[in-house]
Amino acid sequence: MQISPITACQTGSSTGFLQVDVVSSQNNFPISGANISISNDQAPEAILEQTTTNSSGQTENLTLEAPPLEYSLTPGNPRPYSTYHIHITAAGFKSVDISGTEILSGATAIQNVRMEPEDNTTPQPNDIMIPDHTLYATYPPKIAESEIKPVNETGEIVLSRVVVPQTIVVHDGVPTNSSATNYYVPYRDYIKNVASSEIYATWPQATIMANVLAIMSFTLNRVYTEWYRGKGYDFTITSSTAFDHKWIYGRNIYESISTIVDEIFDNYLSRPGVRQPILTQYCDGRQVQCPDWMTQWGSCALGEQGYSAIDILRYFYGDSIYINTAEEISGIPISWPGYDLTIGTSGDKVRHVQQQLDTVATIYSSIPRITADGIYGPSTAAAVRQFQSIFGLPQTGVIDFATWNKISHIYVAVTGIAELN
What we know:
Strand content: 15-25%
Number of domains: 3
Distance between the termini: 47 Å
Radius of gyration: 21 Å
Number of strands: 18
Structural class: alpha/beta
Largest sheet: 5 strands, mixed
Number of helices: 8
Helix content: 10-25%
Strand order of the largest sheet: 3-2-5-6-8
C-alpha cells in the first residue's frame, strides 16, 4: 500500500544567507575590492547592505530576511523566498545589476557574478533578471518522451560510453527558436543552476540528492544520444521546461545543492541491460500531475519520512532503477586515484594535485603556497583546508573525490587548458 508523499514539515527561522562571488569574465580570476550593494527588489533604492569582496572575490555571508521555512516545505503556500537586487561595481569593469536573487529561510544562496572588463568588445548581459522559481510560478509542463531512446537509428547514437562532459551548450529557449542565445556552461554549473531553479535548497538531503540524480541522468541522456544534434541543432539541451529543464542565466545557486552536486556529479541512473542514462522525467506534483514520473513535492515528503535517495527514486521509477557511474570525466587533467589523499600519503598523485593547488594559489592568494614534493604533509593539508573554505567544501584538509575534482575544475578554469570535447 502506497503512502501519500505530500506532508507538511517543521517551521524554522525567517532569515537566510547570501554570499556574492565575483570573477572576471575574461580569465575567471577573482575580483577583490568589488563594491556590493544589496536592496530588496520591492525597494531597490533603499540599500540594506553594503560590502566589498575579499582577495578571493567573495563577500562574507550576509544575513537577509526570508519567509518562514515551512513555506518551502509544503506545497500551495505563499512564495517561500524573498528576492533581492544586487548592484556590483569594480574598478576597470562594467557594473552589473542583478534582480531576483532568491533567499530561502536558513539556506545559503551563492550569487556568482562575472564582470566584463570595460574594454570588452563581446559583451554579456549586465542587467540580469532572475524569474520566479518553477515551484512557485507557472511554466509549461514537460512533453512526455520515452525514457530510453532507440539505438538503431543511424547517426543518433554517437557515443560508445557514458562520459561526463566538461561543457554543455544550453539553448535558452524552445528548440525551434533560432534567435535564442546558446550558452556554453560547465556541466556541474549547469546541474547546480537547474537544481536551484527546480527544487528548494531547504528540502531533506536525500530529496535533493534524488532530484540531482534525476537531473544529471536526464542531461547525460541528452549528451549520450546527441538528441538535438541528431536533429540538426547546434546545442546539447534547452532551457524550456516543455522539452528539458529550467536553466536560468545568471541565477543564484545554493550551498546545500552545490555540495551534493560536487560529491556525485559523475553519477547517473540506469536500468539493467540499458547502456544509456535513463531520461528521468518529473513534474511538481501540485500544478502538474505525472503518474509514471517522480513528483518533486512527493520526493520532499518521502525525504522527510526518512527515505534514502535511491528509495525515493525507486518509489517513483520502479525497483529496477539503480545508480551508475560515468566511465570518464572530461576536462580533468589527472583522474581521481580512487582513494582519499591525507597526511602521510605520498606519490605522483599527491605531486600532481600539489602542482594544481599551488597554481590556483597564485590567483587565490589566501591559499598558502606549497611545494610539489609528492608528500602530503601539514602544509598541504592547510592549503587544502583554505581551498575547501573558499569553494564551499567541508573543511577537512583531506582531498576526497569532491575536493580532487574541484581543484582540477578551478585549475582548468584559471589556466585555460580545458578540453572542450
